Structure formats: C-alpha cells, structure tokens
C-alpha cells in the first residue's frame, strides 16, 4: 500500500514538474523563432522571471523522491542512462545561469551567447525528458542485475524520438500560452497564434504517439483491467480539445489551465500504465524494476509520507500565491524595473 | 584511469566547485536580510541600498550555487549507483526532505524578493529575504545531516542486503552531523563576513560612498567576529568528536603512526607515509594531543599502524589541508578582532583595509581545505565503517566517465570564470546612487 501511494506521489511530482517548468522550457524553445527584437526577448525572459527557479525544484524533488522511495530504480536509471542524464544536467545548468548572466553585461554578442545557451538549455531538456519517458514506457534493455545493456543512441529509436517531439510540442504550446498570459499587444497576438499553430502539430503527434503506444507498449493493459482509470486519458484528450476553443476565444488563461491539465493527464496516463513497474525491462519482464523490488523500507516510506503530507500542501499554497500575485501582464514599467532580466 | 578514480575526481570537482558558491549564499543571504531589516527599522535609505547591493552580489553567486547542487544529486545515481542502492533508504530520504522543506521555499521566494521591491510593504519585502536566508540555512542543515550520516552512520540496520532506516530520530539528531553543520555554516558566515568587509575595504580605500560602506562594514565586522570566535571553539569540539568516532581520520590529520598514551603535539611535522613514519617531528608539547582530542593529557591516541593499511586514509592530503584550515581559522579570529575594534572608523586604518582585501580568497581556501579533510580523511570509506568507496561506484565504461569529467571541468571553469568576473565587476561598481 505504501509503495502504491509513493508510486502515485512519484507520478504527481513528475506531472507537476512538466506542468510548471514545461512552460519555461517551451518559452525558451520558442525564443529564437518568436522574438523579433531585444524587447520581445526581455518580455519572454521576464515572463518566466519570478517562477522558473521554483518550478525547477519540482524536478529536484521528483528526482529526490525517486532516490528516497525507490532507491534501486534511481540507481538503475541514473547509472543506465548516464550520458543522457548528464546531457540533461548540462542543459539545465546552461539554462539556469542564463537568467543571471544575460543582463549583467552589455553587448550583443554577450547576449546572443546566453540566448543560444537558453535555447539549447530549454529545447534539449524538453526533448530528452520525452525521449526518456517514451523509452521507459516501451521498456529499456536492463538485465537481471539491473544493468543497462543499450547505449545512448539506442534511446533515440523512433518511438523514443516521437515521445521527445511530443514533449517539445506540448511544452511549446504551453509556453506560448503562458507568454500570452504575461504580454499585451503584438507579442500577445503572436504568442496566441503560435499556440494555435503548434496545437495542430501537437494534436497530430499525440494521435500518432497514442497509436504507436498501443502497438509498442502494454501501457493500455491497466486501463482495460481497471476501466475506471480511463478517466485519466479522458481528461488528457478532452483538455487538449477544449484548449483549442479557449485559444480561439482569446481566453489565454483558461487555455493555459487546459494545457496544464492536458500535460498532467498525459503524464499520469503513462505512469498509470506503468504501474506497478518503474522501469520495465525490454529483455525480460522478470527483470522489471517495480515498486515492490525497488522500494525503501516501510519506515522510510512512512516518514517521508508524513513530510510530504504536511509540506506539499504548504508548497502548493505559497507557489499558488506567487502565481496569483505575479501572474499579471507585464508592462513597460516592469521592464524598466532595475531587477528585470 | 579506472572508473573509480575518475568518478572520485569528478565528484571531488563537482562538490568543491559547488562549495565555491554555497558558503557565500549562506552568509550573504543573512547579511542582506539584516541590512533590509535595518532599513525597515530605521528608514535609513542607505540600508535599503545595502540590501539591494549585497543582494545583487548574492544573486550572481546564488545561480551557480543552485545549478551545481543539482549535479551532486544526479551524481549519486550516475556515478555511485551501488551506494544509492545500498544506503538510499536512509540517505535518499534526507535529500528528499531537504527539497520539500527548504529548497522550494528558497527558490520560490528568491524570485518574489527580486521582483517585488515596489509592490509590497517594506516589512513584507524584508520577510521574503528572511525566508530565503532561513531556507538556505535549513537546506544546509539537512545536507549536513546526510553527510554526517556518511561520516558517522547511526539509526540503521543491515537488512535485505542494504542499510535500512531504523531510528529516524537518531539520524536527525546525530551529534556528528549537527557539529558538522555548525562548523560548516560558521565557516560560511566567516567567509561571507570577510567578503563584505573586503569589498567595503576596497571602496573605503578609494573614498567611494564612505558613509554607505562604513555602515555595511560595521554590521559585517560584528557578524564575522561572532562566528570567527565561535568557530575556534566549535572546531575544537568537532575535532574531539572526530577523535571519538573516526580514529583513522584523526590519526591522519595529526600524522600519528604509533598508538600512544599522553600523545604530544608537535609544532612541526613532515609526514612520510611511504615509510609509515614522520621524517621530521619538532617542538613537542607533551600530552597536548591527548588533551585536545580526548580531554585528558593521559588519554590514548590511536596510531595509523593500528589499522590495516587498506583502511587508512591518504595521510598527506588530510594532514596538510587540516593545517591550512586550522592555521587560517586562527588568522581569521585575529583579523576579525582587529576589524571589530575599528568597526566605527575603518577608514582610519588603511593597513587593516588592505589586509582585508587580500583576505577575501582565504576563507575560500580554508573551507575547501576543510572539505578535503572531511571527505579524504574518511577514505577508504564512503560511509565510515560501513561501505567502502570502491564498492559504491557505478558500472560504467571508463571512457564515459572520462568524457563527462573533462566536460565538467571545462564547463565549470567557463562558468566559474564568468561568475567571479561578474561578482568582481559588480562589487567594484558599488551601490546604485542614492535618490
């Protein structure tokens, strides 16, 4: 039971991370294509300004919770996917320092350098996380000792790459909508119309991915066994569809919320299909890393559950407050503010 | 080189680089919070400018502190997966608790603090920086409880082929971890205090914004003195805890080869690890080492020869870094007293001000040396007495780790140079002009 609770919490942490940092990664990916001027770029940086750092902590916690609740899964995954994870790490570092460094010196080549870092540091994590999760859905080549038998390039199979593209598109639409929430005028219009265009691509890739998933993985098994779980994919699909309506109406906040719900739905759909496996083995199901053979002791799970039950609502409360307090549209005055990016 | 050595070098590089940024974060957040509180209490605009000025330096430093911390979390899995599997039940949970309890708070409110100078009441705004400062330091507490457990494992049982948590209270009240925490954060506060005083000194010598920097100086001088004095006592207590729980580390710190009662302390020693002896031992003070480590001049101090060769830490590194740390610690105490005596009129002591500028890098040196003593001195154990470092490493191709190690060094060097350049540039620039 404790293992199952932690599995659900594990999924929720990932979903929260994708929902929150997803829009930052999306905005960063869009920057070279959407920003026409230095001013546009500054609006884009400042649209993420007060939030991205707090968002990223959900990743740290998702990683930390894996380590704490399922140490064997943490060990197998991080050891096996060494190169991919270090690439992700370098990208996240590159993005993180951009915010701090970019505005600190004048000169266009200085700024271009950090813009490049920012783009790579946003696009690459979006892609890699998608590739990683799709590969996990399909099963990765781990042997009976939990040793990964593939290479970095064996992750870049068609299904893995499709997952990567899906994540990039989800985050790009999500980011464009957040940008619409935070801006006015021309940039607002362009952000909204970008979201509409990427939404179409996202829909197509999502359909192909889902079909591929049906063929390539056994994620659907749990859903056929426990039909009430179908509510999760239902939320994912319907939120993707209503998103369109809100976008066309110009209700960017509602569209963003629908997009957030969609990302959560997609993540939980994958996680729900995995249960009770954390890392399925593509070599032999007997080598699967599951919540039963990878979990911490009941005492550790209990203590951490206590901490999570107290702290996570508090975190959600103050982060929600920050979003409500600083989620308003940016003005010229905000950009002149000496601390602005 | 093999995977083990490369992974050790990579972890050493990653953690030492991380620790170039974290100490200043720990102390400067508190100093910034103090300046802002003084502004709230007195209405003196200089303190508001101080909070902004030191806060900006804090932020430049903060970014790298955070991103390099993520590396460490990753590396436990990527490079030390056998460790993660074996002790994750205890160690992993401490990291996870750190994130939920402190890291969210710190990372959320730093953004809020930066963007709300004109949006909330001064009192509320000061609260934000206090939240950041408290969260950073609580974060350090959990990390050092985790490290303290690696130094002196408690509250676990060996079950199911791994170390499982048995007594959570014992883990979080582990005396070793708490002493290590006090020792480390005091070091961080000293570093931050000297950083602030050094920057003030640079400006005071140039007669820039004299009133402003005098105010900053005065607070930093008191802050530094408190912790410089505290650190000397705390260091002693921490040292005797090491003597109790990690006899091999103590023996390496002092280069003691033979077990002896009434062990003297030599003022000058040159270790010769090859031949298991010291090539030079001069000026003995009888019984002092026994007294310092075990509170009695006749107490027995274990020598390295009492332990099998494969369970002894590298003596040279541990011994010399210990001396660098302790020597600098006393030096900081002395300079802190002088600075405090001149706190109201530092501009009248140009010699002291010059010294303070050159002192800025020394706490960095001391704090890194301290980590070498703590971590190298614990070898060959990754968890003292429980798991050896060589058994903790991941299954990887050495080419993989070699490439990542080179990539880390190159990328970190690049970022580090930029960061210190910016830190120096903005420190020299001084505060925004008064309105």
Automatic annotation (TrEMBL), chain A:
Principal subcellular localisation of the protein: membrane
MF terms (GO), sorted A to Z: electron transfer activity; metal ion binding; oxidoreductase activity, acting on diphenols and related substances as donors, oxygen as acceptor
One cellular component term from this protein's GO annotations in UniProt: plasma membrane
One Pfam family linked to the record: Cyt_bd_oxida_II
Cellular compartment(s): Cell membrane
Any Gene Ontology biological process: aerobic electron transport chain
Topology versus the membrane: Multi-pass membrane protein
Transmembrane segment boundaries: 12-35, 81-101, 113-138, 158-179, 199-217, 223-243, 255-275, 303-326
Name this protein carries in UniProt: Cytochrome bd ubiquinol oxidase subunit II
Keyword field: Cell membrane, Electron transport, Heme, Iron, Membrane, Metal-binding, Transmembrane, Transmembrane helix, Transport
Family that this chain belongs to: Belongs to the cytochrome ubiquinol oxidase subunit 2 family.
InterPro entries in alphabetical order: Cyt-d_oxidase_su2
UniProtKB/TrEMBL annotation, chain B:
Localization annotation: Cell inner membrane
InterPro entries referenced in this protein's UniProt entry, alphabetically: Cyt-d_ubiquinol_oxidase_su_1
Transmembrane segments: 12-36, 57-78, 90-115, 127-150, 181-205, 320-341, 353-374, 394-422
Pfam families found in the cross-reference section: Cyt_bd_oxida_I
Keywords per UniProt: Cell inner membrane, Cell membrane, Electron transport, Heme, Iron, Membrane, Metal-binding, Transmembrane, Transmembrane helix, Transport
One GO cellular component term: cytochrome complex
Topology class, membrane: Multi-pass membrane protein
Domain of life, source organism: Bacteria
Keyword Cell membrane part of the UniProt annotation: yes
GO aspect biological process, one term: aerobic electron transport chain
Location, primary (coarse class): membrane
Single GO MF annotation: electron transfer activity
Family named by the database record: Belongs to the cytochrome ubiquinol oxidase subunit 1 family.
Protein name: Cytochrome bd ubiquinol oxidase subunit I
Species per Swiss-Prot/TrEMBL record: Dissulfuribacter thermophilus
Lineage, uppermost ranks: Bacteria, Pseudomonadati, Thermodesulfobacteriota, Dissulfuribacteria, Dissulfuribacterales
């Amino acid at each position: 039971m404790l293992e199952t609770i932690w599995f659900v919490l594990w999924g929720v942490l990932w979903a929260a991370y994708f929902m929150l940092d997803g829009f930052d990664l999306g905005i960063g990916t869009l920057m070279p294509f959407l920003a026409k001027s230095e001013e546009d770029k500054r609006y884009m940086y400042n649209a993420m300004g007060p939030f991205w750092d707090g968002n990223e902590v959900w990743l740290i916690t998702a990683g930390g919770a894996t380590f704490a609740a399922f140490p064997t899964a943490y060990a197998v995954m991080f050891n096996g996917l060494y190169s991919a994870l270090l690439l992700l790490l370098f990208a996240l570092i590159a993005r993180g320092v951009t915010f701090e460094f970019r505005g600190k010196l004048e000169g266009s080549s200085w700024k271009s350098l950090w813009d490049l870092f920012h783009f790579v540091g946003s696009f690459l994590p979006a892609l890699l996380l998608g590739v990683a999760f799709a590969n996990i859905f399909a099963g990765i080549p781990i042997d009976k000792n939990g040793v990964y038998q593939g290479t970095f390039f064996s992750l870049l199979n068609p299904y893995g790459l499709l997952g990567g593209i899906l994540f990039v598109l989800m985050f790009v639409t999500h980011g464009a909508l957040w940008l619409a929430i935070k801006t006015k005028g021309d940039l607002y219009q362009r952000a909204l119309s970008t979201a509409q265009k990427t939404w179409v691509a996202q829909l197509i890739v999502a359909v192909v991915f889902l079909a591929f998933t049906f063929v390539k993985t056994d994620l659907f098994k749990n859903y056929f066994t426990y039909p009430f779980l179908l509510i999760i994919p239902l939320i994912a699909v319907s939120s993707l569809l209503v998103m369109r309506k809100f976008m066309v109406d110009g209700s960017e906040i509602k569209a963003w919320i629908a997009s957030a719900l969609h990302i959560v739905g997609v993540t939980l759909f994958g996680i729900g299909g995995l249960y009770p496996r954390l890392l399925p083995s593509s070599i032999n199901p007997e080598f699967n890393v599951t919540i039963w053979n990878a979990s911490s002791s009941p005492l550790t799970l209990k203590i951490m559950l206590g901490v999570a039950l107290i702290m996570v609502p508090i975190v959600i409360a103050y982060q929600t407050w920050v979003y409500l307090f600083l989620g308003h549209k940016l003005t010229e005055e905000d950009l002149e503010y000496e601390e602005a990016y | 080189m093999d995977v083990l050595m490369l992974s050790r070098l990579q972890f050493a590089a990653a953690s030492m680089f991380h620790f170039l940024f974290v100490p200043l974060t720990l102390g400067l957040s508190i100093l910034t919070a103090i300046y802002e509180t003084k502004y709230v209490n007195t209405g003196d605009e200089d303190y508001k400018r101080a909070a902004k000025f030191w806060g900006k330096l804090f932020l430049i430093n903060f970014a790298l502190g955070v991103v390099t911390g993520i590396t460490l979390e990753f590396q436990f899995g990527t490079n030390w997966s056998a460790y993660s599997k074996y002790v994750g039940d205890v160690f992993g949970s401490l990291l996870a608790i750190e994130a939920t309890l402190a890291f969210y708070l710190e990372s959320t409110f730093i953004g809020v603090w930066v963007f709300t100078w004109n949006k909330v009441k001064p009192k509320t705004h000061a609260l934000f920086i206090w939240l950041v400062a408290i969260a950073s330091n609580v974060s350090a507490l959990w990390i050092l409880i985790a490290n303290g457990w690696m130094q002196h494992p408690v509250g676990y049982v060996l079950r199911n082929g791994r170390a499982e948590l048995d007594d959570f209270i014992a883990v979080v009240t582990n005396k070793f971890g708490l002493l290590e925490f006090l020792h480390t954060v005091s070091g961080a506060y000293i570093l931050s205090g000297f950083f602030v005083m050094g920057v003030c000194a640079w400006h005071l010598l140039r007669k820039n914004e004299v009133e402003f920097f005098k105010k900053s100086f005065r607070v930093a001088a008191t802050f530094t003195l408190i912790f410089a004095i505290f650190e000397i006592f705390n260091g002693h207590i921490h040292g005797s805890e090491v003597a109790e729980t990690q006899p091999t580390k103590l023996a390496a710190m002092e280069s003691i080869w033979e077990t002896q009662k009434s062990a003297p302390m030599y003022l000058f020693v040159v270790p010769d690890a090859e031949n298991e002896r010291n090539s030079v031992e001069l000026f003995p003070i009888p019984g002092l080492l026994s007294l310092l480590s075990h509170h009695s001049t006749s107490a027995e101090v274990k020598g390295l020869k009492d332990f099998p060769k494969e369970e002894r830490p590298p003596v040279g590194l541990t011994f010399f870094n210990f001396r660098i740390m302790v020597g600098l610690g006393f030096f900081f105490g002395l300079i802190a007293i002088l600075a405090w005596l001149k706190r109201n009129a530092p501009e009248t002591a140009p010699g002291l001000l010059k010294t303070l500028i050159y002192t800025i890098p020394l706490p960095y040196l001391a704090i890194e040396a301290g980590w070498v003593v703590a971590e190298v001195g614990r070898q060959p154990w990754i968890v003292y007495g429980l798991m050896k470092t060589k058994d903790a490493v991941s299954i990887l191709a050495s080419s993989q780790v070699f490439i990542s190690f080179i990539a880390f060094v190159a990328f970190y060097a690049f970022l580090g140079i930029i960061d210190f350049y910016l830190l120096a540039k903005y420190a020299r620039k001084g505060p925004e002009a008064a309105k």
